[in-house]
């Protein structure tokens, strides 16, 4: 039961014109695909939003050709200062159309409008502004000024527009052209982005969007005229892609899964830490590669932290993603919901204690309540595997070295959080954590100037910041 009532405050979906069907975006135009069109649904209602074209191998071929032509004839030859003008224009249009983009992202993905509006879309615009600034300053990048060529980019469904921005902005700033495949369940904001490219008069073929499922992605990464593969998604598919490109001259960056430890020491300000734990695992329904999905709490404060955490979780508002009050939206797909349920059932079988926030879930759509597991041990599958949902595994530790050892005891190494009052302890612990990003007394902070990426099975390469240019310049791997 919610502790207080509130009036619904739904955002209007009338601000966005969702078309009944969409084609592929190739060579600056929307064209029919040769595959079998598929439907994308609103996971909060199961309503079909649109029918979207599926790109087959011939369509991927056409898109790569268009990208090659645009690369060779215009984009790579254009002075950086001219490319920057297009990127600034795209960034400004994203800001102007931010409400439309946020509503469409929420509809297609299920994420709360508050997050799409306040997190995803502003960071998307910031990314384009940031890399627009680099386009005429590449000689100071440290990686030379020569683009790699045509980039084939494949992205997941958890941050559809944000992952597009992380891939497209640096690629274009460096003079590459792109063919991007969005995830099957969330193609719509990429297609609206294609309209924004038209509105910005971006030269035809610089950005191409091929929608479809895994087979379309496979055709793209295997295409012989793709010079660079950039992938964000699961470790399993990332390994398959690494095998596909092995032995070719293609360059590859992989942003894969994670199982981050959020470490709370007994001297941490506990209410702030609880907010950070909640943000770490329930932001975006826990569909976050760097989610703080393993809480490591010092034994002396574990009981207190858990009591405060449960109290806080009981106030989370789960439901209509378009309601501005909503904290936790819908699970992105029936398949993902099934996976979360399966791993949670395994957690119970393994003997962990399950507790879910007492919230009412809508009848239609894909929903899972904010949940935590106590009494989790290192060997449990829910401590090792990525659940990619609103499910937190709680473990305890006694000493800083035990915390570090447990935090690093995972095949992943994407991110981690440290909560303590002592600056010296932050530095001491953070320096021992094998994670690409370590947040201290905060969590899930993203900024285009800061590189992001993983160790071990969380991937290779960095996105964001000056380091993110390395992936798109020939001198990046020297
Ligand atoms: P996924 O199954 O690996 O899919 C990612 C993308 O790859 C989708 O567009 C997918 O197409 C496509 N794909 C599937 N099979 C392919 C193949 N054989 N060849 C080429 N492309 C293929 O991952 P997901 O379940 O959508 O996303 C969740 C995962 O992404 C999690 O593991 C998460 O940690 C990770 N992630 C990582 C980061 C990061 O920066 N490190 C950021 C966000 C997410 P369809 O989905 O359309 O079939
Ligand atoms: Mg959808």
Outline the structure in words:
The protein is of the alpha/beta class and 478 residues long. It has 2 domains: 251 residues, Aldehyde Dehydrogenase, Chain A, domain 1 (3-Layer(aba) Sandwich); 180 residues, Aldehyde Dehydrogenase, Chain A, domain 2, CATH 3.40.309. Helix content is 37%, strand content 16%. It is built from 14 helices and 18 strands. The strands form 4 sheets. A 7-stranded mixed beta sheet has the order 13-14-15-12-11-16-17, sandwiched between helices. Strands 8-7-6-9-10-18 form a 6-stranded mixed beta sheet, sandwiched between helices. Helix 3 crosses helix 4, helix 4 runs parallel beside helix 5 and helix 9 packs across helix 10. The longest helix is centred in the first third of the chain and has 22 residues. The protein is globular, with a radius of gyration of 22 Å. It starts with 20 loop residues before the first strand and ends in an 18-residue tail after the last strand. The structure holds NADP nicotinamide-adenine-dinucleotide phosphate (NAP) and magnesium ion. The site of magnesium ion has 5 residues, from strand 4.
Return residue spans where pLDDT drops below 50 for at least 5 consecutive residues: none
Euclidean distance between termini CA atoms: 58 Å
* Cα gyration radius (Å): 22 Å
With strands numbered from the N-terminus, the spatial order across the biggest sheet is 13-14-15-12-11-16-17
Q: Give the averaged pLDDT, no decimals.
A: 97
């Amino acid at each position: 039961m919610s502790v207080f009532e509130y009036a619904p405050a739904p955002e209007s979906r009338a601000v966005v014109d969702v078309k009944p069907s969409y084609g592929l975006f190739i060579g600056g135009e929307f064209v029919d695909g040769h595959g079998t069109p598929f439907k994308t649904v609103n996971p909060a209602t199961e309503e079909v939003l649109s029918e979207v074209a599926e790109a087959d191998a011939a369509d991927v071929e056409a898109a790569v050709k268009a990208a090659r032509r645009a690369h060779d004839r215009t984009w790579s030859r254009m002075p950086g200062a001219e490319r920057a003008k297009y990127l600034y224009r795209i960034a400004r249009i994203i800001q102007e159309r931010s409400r439309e983009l946020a509503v469409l992202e929420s509809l297609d993905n299920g994420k709360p409008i508050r997050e799409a509006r306040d997190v995803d879309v502003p960071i998307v615009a910031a990314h384009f502004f940031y890399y627009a600034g680099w386009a005429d300053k590449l000689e100071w990048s440290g990686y030379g000024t020569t683009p790699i060529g045509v980039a084939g980019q494949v992205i997941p469904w958890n941050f559809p527009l944000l992952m597009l921005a992380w891939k497209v902005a640096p690629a274009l700033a460096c003079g590459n052209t792109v063919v991007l495949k969005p995830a099957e369940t969330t193609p719509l904001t990429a297609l609206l982005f294609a309209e924004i490219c038209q509105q910005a008069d971006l030269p035809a073929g610089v950005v191409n969007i091929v929608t479809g499922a895994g087979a379309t992605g496979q055709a793209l990464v295997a295409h012989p005229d793709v010079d660079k593969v950039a992938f964000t998604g699961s470790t399993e598919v990332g390994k398959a892609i690494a095998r596909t490109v092995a032995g070719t001259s293609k360059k590859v960056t992989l942003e894969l899964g994670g199982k981050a430890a959020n470490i709370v020491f007994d001297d941490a300000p506990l209410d702030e830490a609880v907010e950070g734990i909640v943000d770490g695992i329930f932001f975006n329904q826990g569909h976050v590669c760097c989610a703080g999905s393993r809480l490591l709490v010092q034994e002396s404060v574990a009981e207190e932290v858990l009591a405060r955490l449960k109290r806080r979780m009981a106030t989370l508002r789960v439901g209509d993603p378009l309601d501005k009050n909503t904290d936790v939206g819908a699970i992105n797909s029936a398949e993902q919901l099934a996976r979360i349920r399966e791993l949670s059932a395994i957690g119970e079988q393994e003997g962990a204690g399950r507790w879910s926030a007492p919230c009412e879930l809508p009848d239609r759509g894909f929903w899972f309540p904010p949940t935590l597991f106590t009494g989790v041990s290192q060997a449990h599958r829910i401590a090792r595997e990525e659940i990619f949902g609103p499910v937190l595994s709680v473990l305890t530790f006694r000493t800083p070295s035990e915390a570090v050892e447990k935090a690093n005891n995972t095949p992943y190494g994407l991110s981690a959080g440290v909560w303590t009052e002592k600056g010296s302890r932050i530095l001491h612990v953070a320096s021992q954590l094998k994670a690409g990003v370590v947040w201290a007394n905060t969590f899930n902070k993203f900024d285009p100037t800061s590189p992001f990426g993983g160790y071990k099975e969380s991937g290779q390469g960095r996105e964001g910041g000056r380091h993110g240019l390395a992936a798109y310049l020939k001198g990046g791997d020297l």
